[in-house]
Write a structure and sequence with these properties.
mainly alpha, globular
Length: 307
Amino acid sequence: MDMYLPIAEVSVNWPLLILLGAAVGFVSGLFGIGGGFLMAPVLIFMGIPPSVAVASQASHVVASSTSGVIRYSSQGAVDFRMGGVMALGGVAGALLGVELFRYLRLLGQADLVVALSYLAFLGVIGALMLHESLTEILRRRRGEPARRKDRRRPMWLYGLPWKVRFPKSGLYISAIPPLGLGVFAGVLSAIMGVGGGFILVPVMLYVLRMKAGVVVGTSLFQIIITTGVTTILQAGRNQTVDVVLSTLLLLGGVVGAQWGARMSGRFRAEEMRAALGFIVLGVGLYMGLELFVRPSDLFQLAPGVGN
């Protein structure tokens, strides 16, 4: 049941890859994230070179996010104007990130940067999400009244130019913060192979103060465009996209994302954040530990370097 991956130059069990795509797609639809932060480490664990894993699974992120957006848009839960502004920044960030990724591969430091990025971003974000959600769960179980949340937006949002009205999100703010978030997501997409939803969703909720009902769908819409552009750039510029691997992951991802979106309304918000926090923190720590494990092959030439 093994299949040879021409770009990754390894053989893998193809039914396992389809199941993996479905599982990560389910997580994507459930939490409103791209799922790349979970997919890339698993692929690396299966023996696929990090540079190929990061670039190839981006198409799975696109497919899973598209499937989720279809579901959320049918419920009127996507702010396409906000998502479009963020996607413009995402395209610019993807261009920058792909060139940076190519430079790091030529230096032979891409794998190290990928591992450090996972350790830093996922470790910090996962810990913060876990702390906030567990605190809320414990307060509810003790019967304590819910802490009143400050819904005021940061004052600096009102002092910036280029104000745009986002009726769906209930906002009238400068386009600069959403553009900046998009640029950041684009760079992360190129370096880590993620959509950036695990960072964007909290920022959209707690900084921009978007309506909670449209945050997940809008995040997924932005991810589609940003990650799609990243995939094309990685394939053309770095030749690290394995079409066979991408197709297998995509087949399972579309179905899994639909089921995840259907299940998303059956859980409390704090319970979902706690579960996502555990997953994010665990993946970040796992990738970080890889930095301290002696590799089986001390001298390995990554495929495609120098092309």
